[in-house]
Each structure stands twice: as structure tokens, then as C-alpha cells.
């Protein structure tokens, strides 16, 4: 009698655990799919990048004044000012570097987009 009760408890517990595990897996898969579909800034942040807004704040640039020349001018100044030789932080230098990298990639992307748009309009 006791062994039958023990077997029932084990089977009931195993079935409850199995259902809970499969439900949790389904929820995790659904959340993962929704996160992958969202992309955008979350994708950039998860890949170690920073957003363009944050990059512009770091380099102290306004949206209307972003150009390669202005970008390189701000980058060179801030990178030099924050050098370890001058007693400043490598962390700040890396932030400046990643801001420059992000904005360069964004400018290249916008340039390609503009070229594709002009190419499609002239065809």
C-alpha cells in the first residue's frame, strides 16, 4: 500500500514538473522570437555597440552638424584629452572610439541608402 502511494506521488510530481518545464520553454521561445524580430537599438546594444543618439552625445554633436570632418575633429580632440598618458581614463577613450565607430558606420549606411535611392530614381 505504501509503495503504491509513493509511486503515485512520484508520477504526479514528474508530470507536474514536465508540464511546467514545457510551458516555460514555450514562453522562452516566444520571448526570444519577439526579441529577435524587434532588432533595432536592442540589437546594437546586445552586440556591444552604442546607439547613434548616445554616440552624438559622447562626441558633443548635433544631428544637423554630423559630417566626417566634424566627426574626426571631435574624435581626435576627445581621444587625445582622455589619453592615459595625461592621467585620464582608458574607459573614456574607448567610449569615444566606439562613438566614432558607430557614427562612421551610420554615415556610411546613409550614404549607401542615398546612392541606392538616386540610382533607383535615375533608372
From TrEMBL:
<protein>
    <recommendedName>
        <fullName>Mitochondrial import inner membrane translocase subunit TIM16</fullName>
    </recommendedName>
</protein>
<dbReference type="GO" id="GO:0001405">
    <property type="term" value="C:PAM complex, Tim23 associated import motor"/>
</dbReference>
<keyword id="KW-0496">Mitochondrion</keyword>
<keyword id="KW-0813">Transport</keyword>
<keyword id="KW-0472">Membrane</keyword>
<dbReference type="GO" id="GO:0030150">
    <property type="term" value="P:protein import into mitochondrial matrix"/>
</dbReference>
<dbReference type="GO" id="GO:0019904">
    <property type="term" value="F:protein domain specific binding"/>
</dbReference>
<dbReference type="InterPro" id="IPR036869">
    <property type="entry name" value="J_dom_sf"/>
</dbReference>
<dbReference type="InterPro" id="IPR005341">
    <property type="entry name" value="Tim16"/>
</dbReference>
<keyword id="KW-0999">Mitochondrion inner membrane</keyword>
<dbReference type="Pfam" id="PF03656">
    <property type="entry name" value="Pam16"/>
</dbReference>
<keyword id="KW-0811">Translocation</keyword>
<comment type="similarity">
    <text>Belongs to the TIM16/PAM16 family.</text>
</comment>
<keyword id="KW-0653">Protein transport</keyword>
<comment type="function">
    <text>Essential component of the PAM complex, a complex required for the translocation of transit peptide-containing proteins from the inner membrane into the mitochondrial matrix in an ATP-dependent manner. In the complex, it is required to regulate activity of mtHSP70 (SSC1) via its interaction with PAM18/TIM14. May act by positioning PAM18/TIM14 in juxtaposition to mtHSP70 at the translocon to maximize ATPase stimulation.</text>
</comment>
